[in-house]
Design a protein that fits this description.
By secondary structure, the chain is of the alpha/beta class. Helices cover about 40% and strands about 10% of the residues. A 5-stranded parallel beta sheet has the order 4-3-5-6-7. Strand 5 (about 155-160), helix 5 and strand 6 (about 180-185) form a beta-alpha-beta unit. Helix 6 crosses helix 7 (about 225-240).
Amino acid sequence: MFTLWGILQLLERYPGMVPDVDLMFDCMDKPAIKKRQYRNKWPPPPLFRYCGNKDAFDIPFPDWSFWGWAETHLLPWDEEFNTILKGSKQVKWERRHQTAYWKGNPYVGSPLREELLKCNSSGKYDWGAQIFHQDWNAEASKGYQDSKLGNQCKHRLKIYAEGHAWSVSFKYILSCDSPVLVPSLTYYDFFTRGLIPQIHYWPVTRNRLCSSIKYAVNWANEHTSQAQAIGRAGQRFVQTNLTMEFVYDYMFHLLNEYAKLQKFQPRVTPEAQELCRSSILCFADAKQNFFLKRSSVQASEKSPCSLPSPDHKFIMNLREMQWNKTKEVEHWEDASRKKRSKLTALLS
């Protein structure tokens, strides 16, 4: 419902400018159009969804939470970001807990999140992490008092962990101005491919997750100026590049470029259902209405931003930088582990 509402808001924002398109949208989590299945046949069917990965052709589209998420009491993105931004100023970075923080639902069919539970600091092992299970049913009964994202900027580092596929949480976690620890990504949404390790976030290794988190926490507490710079850059990235204006512009250009590839004129079939603002609001319950209405837009006085020509060299250089900076951190971790092992051997 909220995705359809977002598309209607796009039509409201740029009236008469969005082309007619006939498209398929899959609301399930994982990409479905596997590249390996289309090596000898072309083209693959275009399928829109909320995320993609390097092995699939699925087309990333902004997820529903940009217009609010009633079930988890998250406001539309522009409002929620401002709440988190305000919350990030409540405790100065130097005075925050010197640990990495994650709160979420680990039981979503995510091996990564289940492994992350093992990294919770305990009496026996101190991995420098505080991992909390988010029980949404319990939160709803308490009025969501313990799940307010603006109150979760009290640790020097935060952790992003993919769920069943990608997770809508990445943008919220980046908003706190604490450096975000990110296990190597399997999935991406429409904006994450612009993030650069060591600049916007800190990469951690999946196959030795807890020790990699511990190394990152130690590094951040020993290199406080650099760590704060990463946190501020991540926050600035979403503040600058993930405004709702740019979200709508991405949607606008994506649909325009898609329309250019259509070899037919879309038409409304007799079986089609017409959706409009009033029909969605009529279908929505009272709580959903509250969130939907908060994200209503009016016609923009400005045209969409201009879409630059594809710059393949820039994209290749960006990918190379992302790869090199991730490998550099892995090298530092390896060197630290070898040094620690050598010291242990000398003391034993």
